[in-house]
Write a structure and sequence with these properties.
Strand content: 5-15%
Low-confidence stretches: none
Bound molecules: pyridoxal-5'-phosphate
CATH architecture of the largest domain: 3-Layer(aba) Sandwich
Oligomer: single chain
């Protein structure tokens, strides 16, 4: 093991210290690490990841968190406040998704641990509902190619066959006819994104809604990313097609409070048109010697702190708070996109809003990535086609960031042209880019091994001293 983080600077704990360390000493260490790691994004050069970046907001949420961090919301008699926080988070999220348009069923929701948590719970609910009401034992689910890997993970975990529908490369939107062709009598649900993680574009949810209704299956809208930003964009007059419960075929929506909801990492909302689908997730154990047990979803004990902090963030910001931030983000994204469009060598994929992805038909876009990385920019790398994306968040709206982006990008394009002419291969392309024509089985196995090594390094435990 080589480079254990901070090994040379702070004590490495291979076992519990025999004598506890002073609080002040520990906090000093933590402050040092946090300050250095925050500096990485505070310049506004990091795509996505840090959605808010306002330390006053973080301090406010930390206080709310601290008041309830020790409470276990599974023991509701001890913390009735959790019912208020969770219920109101869900009510506010449902309202944002126009659940007021729902008739004939009772809308409901679940606060989960994140986007993946919401997606896992959604697919579990669809699977069990289809088994119970339609007798489906070999379920399948259809996602557009651009649908988040959390859907692949859910299908993997829950024994659901995943079918992937292609997108139209010109628009990056799913081909709805292909979705229809993939459906059969064992299809439990289909999905669309608003917007998708790669391109930030919004699938034709209206058409998917018609399709889902006509075939009697569920439609999940993944608004993990867009759920707390697109509705305000629509209010501000941007051209955002409806993607929520206004469309009658939409049966569930995931919307992440821990992204553009500006909560702490660790919460998301999963919203249902019909409470009966949500209640498929309820778990009861009635005969256990330890007593009767019940839980609303996959988790057992949960901290009241995250619910309190998320609730506090939403209520403190309010509609006008979100709108003001969304306005800045949309305007910043438009200015950055303008900088991209000013270079004929670059091409933006689809018609995005707050998150945009671009490629080049003249050179490998990873040359641009390389140059920009040297200037401290951190984009997300994409493949098929090679592209890089910027999810604009509040740190990018700080003064000077767009100007710096435009200036660095102009130099990056000149650099890419020179590298391309010299026949050079980009450094980062090997890590992030796709291989033309797809991967051979051997290459795929090789990449999986590299990825496993990365996870090993991330989860590595410091080695105990020799001889122990
Ligand atoms: C982030 C994201 C997810 C997954 O969310 P996590 O919070 O990372 O688990 C799912 N879908 C979309 C579109 C996302 O952007």
């Amino acid at each position: 093991m080589t480079d254990y983080p901070y090994a040379g600077r702070f004590p490495v704990h291979q076992r519990l210290p025999e004598h506890g360390r002073p609080r002040e000493e520990i906090l000093a260490e933590l402050r040092e690490m946090a300050a250095e790691e925050d500096a990485r994004w505070e310049n506004g050069k990091v795509s996505g990841t840090i959605y808010c970046g306002d330390h006053a907001h973080y301090e406010f949420m930390t206080e709310a968190y601290g008041l309830f961090a020790h409470a276990n919301v599974l023991q509701r008699d001890m913390c009735p406040s959790a019912t208020k926080f969770e219920g109101e988070i869900l009510a506010m999220a449902l309202d944002l998704m126009h659940a007021g348009h729902i008739t004939g069923t009772t809308p409901a929701g679940l606060v989960t641990t994140g986007g993946t948590g919401s997606i896992l719970h959604a697919l579990l609910a669809y699977r069990d509902h289809a088994a119970r009401t339609r007798g489906i034992t070999r379920p399948n689910f259809i996602k557009p190619e651009t649908g988040h890997p959390a859907f692949d993970k859910a299908c993997h975990l829950f024994g659901i066959e995943l079918r992937v529908a292609p997108i139209d490369p010109a628009t990056t939107l799913v081909d709805v006819r292909a979705v229809a062709d993939l459906m059969d009598e064992n299809t439990i649900a289909i999905m669309g994104s608003a917007g998708n993680y790669g391109y930030g574009t919004i699938d034709p949810i209206g058409e998917l809604s018609e399709l889902a209704l006509s075939r009697g299956v569920g439609l999940h809208v993944d608004a993990c990313l867009g759920g707390f930003i697109l509705p305000f964009g629509e209010e501000l007059g941007y051209d955002i097609p409806p993607f929520d419960f206004r469309l009658p075929g939409v049966t569930s929506i995931s919307a992440d409070t821990h992204k553009y909801g500006y909560g702490f990492k660790g919460t998301s909302t999963l919203l249902f048109r019909d409470r009966r689908l949500r209640n498929e997730l309820y778990f009861f154990s009635t005969g256990w010697s330890g007593g009767k047990y019940l839980s609303p979803g996959i988790e057992g004990s949960r901290s009241g702190g995250l619910l309190a902090a998320t609730w506090a963030a939403m209520v403190q910001l309010g509609r006008d708070g979100y709108r003001a931030r969304v306005k800045k983000i949309f305007e910043t994204s438009a200015r950055m996109q303008q900088a991209v469009r000013s270079h004929p060598q670059l091409r933006i994929l689809g018609e995005p809003t707050f998150l945009f992805s671009f490629t080049s038909d003249e050179f490998d876009i990873y040359h641009v990535y390389d140059f920009m990385a040297g200037r401290g920019w951190r984009f997300n790398g994409q493949q098929y086609p090679n592209a890089i994306h910027m999810a604009v968040t509040l740190p990018q709206t700080r003064p000077g960031v767009t100007e710096e982006f435009a200036a660095d990008l102009a130099e990056a394009v000149a650099y890419a042209q020179k590298q391309h002419a010299a026949g050079a291969r980009p450094h980062s392309g090997a890590i992030y880019g796709g291989v033309p024509g797809g991967l051979t089985d051997e290459a795929d196995e090789f990449i999986r091994q590299i990825m496993a090594d990365m996870l090993d390094a991330q989860q590595s435990v410091p080695r105990p001293p020799e001889g122990r």
